[in-house]
Amino acid sequence: MIPRFINISKSRSFFLFGARATGKSTLLQEQLFRPEESYLLDLLDPQLHDQLLAYPNEIHGYIEKPVSEGKFIIIDEVQRVPALLDVVHQLIQRKKAKFALTGSSSRKLKRGAANMLAGRASVYRLFPLLFSELGEYFSLQHALEWGTLPELVEIVEPEEKIRYLQAYSNTYIREEIIAEQIVRKLPPFRRFLDAAAQMNGKIINASRIAADIQTDPSNVRNYFEILEDTLLGFKLQSYHSSIRKRQRQAPKFYWIDTGIARSIVKTLGTPLRPSTSAFGDQFENFIITQIHALLSYQTSQFELSYLQTKDGAEIDLIVERAGEPTLCIEIKSADLVREEQLQNLSQLSADIPKAQPLCLYRGKDSLQFGKVQVEPWEAGIRKFFCPA
Q1: Could you tell me the strand order of the sheet in which 122-125 lies?
Q2: Which pLDDT score is estimated for 169?
Q3: Residue 203: what pLDDT?
C-alpha cells in the first residue's frame, strides 16, 4: 500500500469524507488500524444496507461485542443510512465507543439534518494520490493524462485505464448520484457534467452553461453544489480584500482529479503534448488540486482564490494563511521562464498586502527575478506546502 500523507488521530471518533475510489477503506483497514483493532460495517453491502435502513437500531447486534472489546467501529459510506448517526451518538456518550465513519457525500447528511455528533467526532477529507505519496511511482505525464486515483497505479494497460475511468464516470457520477436521489432528472445533469468537465479550471458562467444544456441557471448552480457535496470538486473564489466585493466575480471550478474530468469529456487515451494549451491547462489544474489537497490535510486554516483583472491579467492561485505571507502563484507548464513573462505577477502582487510572488514551472533551476521567486514545481510545493 502507498502510505498516505493524511494524519488521522485515533484518540477520538472521526468522519473521513472523500470521493469514491480515493482509498478511504484501504487507508483505514491497511494503514491506520490493525485487523484486531477494528470492526467493519460496509453499507455498500445491499443486504446490510437494506436491513439498517429499515431498522437502524439493529446495528447493536453487530457491534455490541466489538464495542465491549474496545475496537474502533468502521461504518463505510455512512451517508447511505443517516439515521445510524443517532445510534452512534448515543454509543459515544454512554459507552465511550469510537467510530470511524466514511462517506462519499455530505449532501444527504446535510439535507437530511443528520446528527453530525455535535463535535464529538473529528472531520477529515481524503483526496486522490499526491505526487509526494507516489514517490518513485509518480509520472507527471501519467498524472495529467490519467489522474491519480489509487487503483490506477496498479493498472498497466491503457485500455484498462480507460475502462476503469469510464466505469467511474458512468456508473458512479452519473448513475449513483441519481440513485441516491441527489438529482431527480438525469438528462440535464448528464449534459451538465460534460460542460463542467470542459470548464475544468475555468470561470463559471452559469447562464451560458444553462443555455447550452437547456436548463435554468439556478439548476446549474445547484449542480455545481452537488459536485462539491459529493466531493468531486471545489470552487476557487475570486480574490478581493473585501469579502463583499469578492462575491461579485464568479468562481472557478476544479475537479479533484484530471483523469475523471478527461473521462467525462472522452479525451482519455489522447496524448497531452508539452507546449500545447491543453497540456498547460491540465498542468495548472494538477498543481492547484495538489496544493488544495495538501493544505486540506493540515490543521492550519487557509483560503485559496484567484485574481483576474478586466483586461485579462491574472494570478493563477492566491494562498492566504494566518500569520504567513500571502502567496501569489503563477503556474507555467514550460521548462524555461523569462523575466518579462512574470510582469503581470510582479505588478498585481504588489497591490496585495504582505504578498510573496512565486512562479512554479517544469524547469530544474531555482531563479529570482526581482521580487518573484521561481521554483521547480515539485521543490516549490514541498518548500511552501509540506510541513518540515
Answers
A1: 38-42, 72-76, 98-103, 14-17, 122-125
A2: 87
A3: 93
Q: From CA 318, how far away is CA 355, in angstroms rounded?
A: 9
List the grid coordinates of 1.
500500500
Whether 196 and 227 have beta carbons less than 8 Å apart is answered as yes
Q: Note the pLDDT of residue 115.
A: 58
What is the C-alpha separation between 301 and 296, in angstroms, rounded? 9
- Print burial letters for 132-149: b (CB count within 10 Å at least 16), e (below 16): ebbeeebebebbbbbbbb
The total of other beta-carbon atoms located within 10 Å of residue 129's CB is 25
pLDDT of residue 113: 45
Closest CA to 169 of 105, 261, 290, 276: 261
Query: For the chain, what is the total number of helices (H) and then of strands (E)?
Result: 17, 13
Cβ atoms of residues 314 and 328 within 8 Å: no
Chunked into runs of 10 residues, the chain (388 residues) has average pLDDT values of: 91 93 94 94 94 95 94 93 90 92 78 61 94 95 96 92 92 66 69 90 93 90 88 92 64 95 92 94 97 93 91 92 94 96 94 94 96 97 88
CATH 3.40.50.10740 is right for the domain spanning 14-125: no
Report the candidate in 117, 88, 123, 118 with the shortest Cα–Cα distance to residue 103.
123
CA distance linking residue 2 with residue 153, whole number of Å = 10
> What does the domain layout of the chain look like in residue ranges?
14-125, 131-248+256-272, 298-385
Q: Which fold has domain 298-385?
A: Trna Endonuclease; Chain: A, domain 1 (3.40.1350)
pTM for the full predicted model: 0.92
Give me the helix-helix angle, 277-296 and 377-385, nearest 10°. Answer: 20
Q: Show the CA angle centred on residue 297, arms to residues 130 and 362, nearest 5°.
A: 35
Give the integer Cα–Cα distance in Å for 267 and 260: 10
pLDDT recorded at residue 37: 95
N-term to C-term CA, the chain: 24
